[in-house]
Specification:
204 residues, mainly alpha, two-stranded antiparallel sheet
Length: 204
């Protein structure tokens, strides 16, 4: 899957174009210590848990296997504006607040079905919100024109969480090699590549 195709996937599944576009310059996130970001180990654990609901482990690895939380913390620290980063963190807090209000427990203590129910509701709310504020053009069924680093309007906070989860997972070694198919570039040319219906997309 080329990065352009990944961005299209993210746009369609989150109802808005990717926020924090400088993240696209990251071929590999540098080893920035967590202490140099505004995120804690608890934040990373929480992000991993949320992302695992979005990208669960099945017969292929899930978000926790890729430790997407650690990468998300670095990208959000380096590539988001202050407003985007605050909005992202508020979205994480909102998930926990809703879990306590709806189920009487913090998100991390919920069972799998409850977590899925909560995030599914948030996802529907986020898509409706993004359309309402004009971030998704209903007429063309595409993201509306918007400067990548614009803070006005910001997408629904859950959209940022979902975008980051998808982006960091499918650009991780685990996501690219264990879920997608990967061939290092440069590789050899094969003009008669066998294809069977249901084959996984290529990472490259």
């Amino acid at each position: 899957m080329e990065r352009r195709e990944l961005l299209k996937l993210i746009a369609v599944t989150t109802g808005t174009a990717m926020v924090g576009m400088p993240a696209l310059a990251y071929d590999q996130v540098p080893p920035v210590p967590l202490k140099d970001t505004p995120f804690s180990k608890e934040d990373v654990s929480f992000i991993n848990d949320v992302a695992e609901v979005i990208l669960p482990k099945t017969d292929t690895p899930g978000a926790k296997d890729a430790n997407v939380g650690a990468t998300i913390a670095v990208i959000a620290a380096d590539c988001y504006t202050d407003a985007q980063r605050a909005h992202f963190k508020a979205g994480l807090n909102d998930i926990d607040t809703r879990a306590k209000a709806q189920f009487g427990k913090p998100f991390l203590l919920l069972d799998s079905d409850s977590k899925t129910t909560l995030l599914s509701e948030l996802d529907r709310e986020a898509n409706a919100y993004n359309k309402k504020v004009g971030l998704w053009d209903v007429a063309t069924d595409k993201p509306s024109d918007r400067k990548p680093d614009s803070d006005k309007p910001l997408p629904h906070a859950f959209s940022l969480v979902k975008q980051m989860s998808l982006y960091t997972f499918f650009t991780s070694e685990v996501g690219a090699t264990k879920v997608l198919r990967y061939v290092a570039v440069p590789g050899y040319y094969n003009g008669e590549l066998d294809y069977k219906k249901g084959d996984r997309a290529w990472a490259t």
